[in-house]
Amino acid sequence: MAEVLLTADRTLMSDYHNNIFLGFGTCAPKNIIPEWLYSFLFFPRIRSNNGVPLAAPYGLRKVEAQLLKEEFNVKTVTPNSIHRHIKSAKILGIHTMDPFGLGPASSTLSAIFKKKPYLARHFQELIDNPVIKQAQKRGLKIVIGGPGAWQFHYRKDFVERQGIDCIIEGEAENILGKIFRALFNGNSVPIFYQTPIKETPTLDEIPDIVSPSIDGLVEIGRGCCRGCEFCNVTIRPLRWNSLNKIRREVDLNLSLNKANNCCLHAEDVMLYGSRNTTPDGKKLVKLHELVVAERKVDLSWSHCSIAAIAAKPKLLSKISEMVLQNQAWWGAEVGIETGSPEIVKKRMPAKAHPFKAEDWPQIVHEAMGLMHDNNLVPACTLILGLPQETEDDILKTMELIDNLKEFRSLIVPLFFVPLGQLSREDWFKSTNLSDLHKQLMFQCVEHDFYWADRLIDSLYKNKWQRRLLKPFYKAFVAIAKSKVRQIE
Ligand code: SF4
User: Fold this and answer.
1) Per residue in 147-185, pLDDT tens?
2) Which helix (H) or strand (E) holds 167?
């Protein structure tokens, strides 16, 4: 029996029908679609064997690998099977992404629907599990980590009430053993532990995952060189994994998981292996030869940047030719954030590099056209309410979105969340929305409705799923549209 149990709530412990971008559905609150059906459509329970999931979030797999390397007795379990494994556990590690729904997508949707998002409800349900409470009474320690750890600073009462022992922020490979050993030995640890830069792991210190990750996600690098003021990631140094390391993790996923998909994860996949903001064509092609040409996986990218796409149009076409041998299109998250060059200059000066911030709208238009022509479908973000945003900035964003109508994409407006260098600024709330913001949101919903309708057929390969989803999906978007209109 394991002494360390690792888990995550149901919205994270799902393969999203092998389409990682469906995971966005977890940010929505309860709506017209019955809860059981919505959960099944957007975040079905992961398949498991005696409570051990066949795949788990990549970050949790890294924690598992590190603890195993340090010879802890560890088991990763599904949230609904904790009761079967908790008796002998001394520590429960919980991976979080957006535990209180404070992230940009969920806070925007909950402001529109005025309800708690699914992901926050499921995190609450996990932490309230009575078997965990009983185990805490006999000494079980709770450690929380993952990209959502920052949110606990805004919920200190909750941390105390739930008896959470330690919340780890940042890359944890070099400090996990120290913290877990201290807890095993009954020594005190800080309730909030922010990994200092000097403890950030080098590439060699990051262990390979030892069990499959959800949707075949494999990290190809960490960090970002663009330095946007509103972003946490930029604090980390930029590092790229070797092709050998990537190959090992892709092969592990393909051999142990039945799905044949792979999501390449980095803040900008186009910049794989590059030391600056210009893509390194040779390295990017080699990466795709490895994953797409040799292994014929169903590919997605987690993120890529507008500027890197615009910088190397021919390179994108070459990658596209390789990817489209196996699939009709592939997806990536892309940050547009604004149509205003002034905001780019002020808040994200390197976002447009190697181009000039002044030319941002034209660069976005160019890159969106290239992605459309090459069947790369971007899920784009906009940020509403950045500090010192003016009416003119919003008008410029509206003009840009109008010019992007013809390009196959989803454009998601998100409320500003104070992170990174802007962590002391105020949150942007629905009460701060001006009429122009509302018009912009409505413009995005119209754009998304048009394109999502055309993408939905290829999202669901099984006909019965497609038939089932479509009417509910349409109803959901129609409600979102009317809610945006009603925002006061
Ligand atoms: S480009 Fe993206 S990941 Fe990089 S700093 Fe800006 S927002 Fe963060």
Assistant:
1) 999 999 999 999 999 999 999 999 999 999 999 999 999
2) strand 166-169
